[in-house]
Amino acid sequence: MCQWGVRGRRETCGAGARGAHRARPRRQEANVRYHEGSGLPGDAMAVKLLYPALNWLIVEQLTLPDVFTPTERERLVTAAVERMVAAG
Predict the structure, then answer these.
(1) Residue 28's pLDDT is what?
(2) pLDDT above 70: residue 1
(3) Could you give phi then psi for residue 23, rounded to 5 degrees?
């Protein structure tokens, strides 16, 4: 899918852009299969929930670096993993 460019003009999307968009779900599915096959705790939903949770934390760190201290970030990641794995 093409998106609008910075100046309001439609950007052209080549095969590379479309291919990258389709590759994301396959990569995530591969991570879920690996997780389940390795015997690690947690189910497929826990693995998928970690993506948006940890991506949000990365964006938060990049855009508002002083919101959480390094210790708070570590505790947030630990709590997210523990809760998601315990729920699965």
Answers:
(1) 84
(2) no
(3) -70, -30
pTM over 0.70: no
pLDDT digits (tens, 9 = 90+) for 52-69: 888 998 999 999 999 999
d(CA 22, CA 45): 20
For the beta carbon of residue 36, count every other beta carbon within 10 angstroms.
13
Task: Read off φ and ψ for residue 10, nearest 5 degrees.
Answer: -70, 130
Report how far residue 10's alpha carbon sits from residue 2's, in angstroms, rounded to the nearest whole number.
Answer: 7
Q: Closest by alpha carbon to 69, among 80, 57, 81?
A: 57
For residues 74 and 68, what is the distance between their CA atoms, to the nearest angstrom?
9
Classify the C-alpha dihedral 40-53-72-83 as positive or negative.
Answer: negative
